[in-house]
Structure formats: structure tokens, C-alpha cells
Design goal:
Elements: H1 6-13, H2 22-54, H3 58-70, H4 72-83, H5 87-120, E1 126-127, H6 130-134, H7 136-150, E2 169-170, H8 172-198, H9 213-248, H10 253-264, H11 267-278, H12 282-307, E3 310-311, H13 314-336, E4 340-341, H14 343-362
Antiparallel strand pairs: 1-4, 2-3
Helix pairs in contact: 2-3, 2-9, 2-11, 3-8, 3-12, 4-5, 4-12, 5-11, 5-12, 5-13, 5-14, 7-8, 7-12, 7-13, 8-12, 9-10, 11-12, 13-14
Length: 366
Amino acid sequence: MMAVEPLDIIRLVTGLDAPSSILISLFFILLGMLSITKGGDLFTDSSVEIARLTRIPPVIIGATIVSMSTTFPELMVSVTSTISGKGDLAVGNALGSCLCNIGLIIGTCALLKGFLSWRGKTESGIPVSRLTIVGPGFFMLFSGVLVWLFSLFSSGGAVTQAGVPAEFGIARWQAGILLCVLAGYILFSLRVAMSSRHDFGEEQEHPPEVKNLKVHCFKLAFAFFCGAFLVVLGSKLLVTNAVQVARYYEVSELLIGLTILAVGTSLPEFTISVLSVVKGHGALGTGNIIGANVLNITMVISTCALIHPLPIQKQTVLFDGPVVILLMLAMLGLSWKRKQISSFSGFVLLSIYVGYLGIATFWFSR
């Protein structure tokens, strides 16, 4: 009987490798789901408590520290792909996550909120303030349009996996511009956060009274990072073992990429957003999604392009990029008048995403 090395066990438990047994893979899938659920619960509660304690609106908390934590899987996957010489996968992963964040996650959360409101006879719709639309929402849309315009031509030495110059690509100097947009977004968020602390209105929830502030802050930080760790760990376990099971049942690589991997890297955002809606903190989930999209484009793509100029596939230029911009416009436009994402808006966003998957699967796969 072959001895199992401790390092191999660690790689299996952390989701870096998949076991050879399908039964063990199914066990790790259940373990990953449990880890995501518990981690998301800790993460959401601690984030809301941080917002109350610091007097910063939950949407800003969601758009900054929460989204930075939940974007970590996309960053790691994209950087690893770039170092491995698969830069086009890095761009596809970042833009695919934006599509999933708006179409699947926001769409599902809006429909879920409508269902919960119908059952509980409460007000429907996920609240979206005008500040969110003209602030983080503007940065999201601007960065999405900018990276699509950059991808229309190649200027900076991007090469394909075959070693030939890429027809479309993102250069290092363009990555520098995206980093400037990221810096502007962070400065804007900090400014809003500081002004919110001094402009504490009656409609905001008052900060909790605690006996020992230092101990309370330490507990909050510990719960926040433990929750983030459990969500990322659970996502990795779920994706790695789900891919193993899918391949066992001979599911196509394209379908695996469009479903398991695309949704898998967005599982942290999905978990936090759904739990935020269930717990009545929809603004936190909305801020998380918008912030994650800004970071996917400005931080993830720019970091990879700085490592090596990124080649862009023709499908991304003609189809993926425009659909990303369409979903961003739809999300912001549908929520502008009523200052909320209604169930109807969620249905529209989800329909666009499902239509995108259908066309990508049955047309571009040819």
C-alpha cells in the first residue's frame, strides 16, 4: 500500500489537488459547501458590525475591504495563468467574473429578495443609492469601457500561446492607466468613508456600545479574516473537486469553464451577496459586487499585464467585452429611477447572462 505524504494531504484538504476517488471528491464538495456557508456567515456579520462601528456606509465597506477579500481567487487564478503563459485565460477569467457577478449573482439576489419579500410581506428590491451609481458604479462602467477600448488593438508585445504576435492585447502602459483608475477609486472610497463618519445622520444605524473597544475590534478583525479564509478555502475545495467529478462523467472542458470555473471563482461574492440579502443587508452585497468588478478589471488585469502584455481573444473583443458593458449599463440604468434593483431588473440581468452562456456555448465553441 502506497504511503500518503503529509504534503499530499495538505494539498487535498486545501483544494490544490483533487483526489483520485470520486467518493472522496464528493466528500470534499460537501466540506467546501460547509466551509463557504460558515465563512460567509462570519464574514457578513463582522462586515456589518465594522460598518456600524466605524460609521461607514455598508455599501462602501462592501465596495472596498469586502470586495478586496472576495476578489482574491480571481487574482490568484489570473496571475497563475499569466505566469504559465496563458494570459488570455487571465483576461477571460476577470471579465467572466464580471459577467457572473452582475448577471448571475445580482440577478439571483434580486429574485431571491423578491421571493423573501413576498413571503414576509416586506418591501421588495435591493437598495441602490444614487451615490453608489455615480460613485463606485461610474468607476465600474468606466473601467469596463476602458479595458474594452484597450483590447481593440495590440501595442506592447503581447503574444499568443503559439508564440506569434497577438492581434488584440493589453500593454504594460495601458496597465498603468488601469492602476491609476484603481487609485482614483480607492481615494474616492476613502473620501466618502471619512465624510460619512462626520455626517452621521439619523437614518444610519448608531454604532454599538462596547466596554472594551480594543478587544471588540480584535474579535471583529479575527472573525472577518477567518470568514474570508473559510470562504476562499471552501471555494477552492468546491471548484477543484467539482471539476474532477465533471471530468469523471465526461463533461466537456468548455462547459466546465463556462459553469464550474466561472461560478467557482465568483463563489465568495455569491456567498456574501446572498447572505447579505437574507440577513437584510442588501447594500453590503451590492457594494461587494460593484467593488469586485472594479478590482477585477483594474487590479487583476493590470497586475497580469504588468507581468507580461496580455493577448486578447477575438471572442473577448467582439462578444465578451460588449456583453460586460451591456450588463453594467443595464444594472445601473434599471436601478437609477427607483434607487433599487427590483425583481424584474434581476430577471433581465439573469436573462442576459443565460443568453450569453447559450451563445458562447453553441456559437463560439465552433
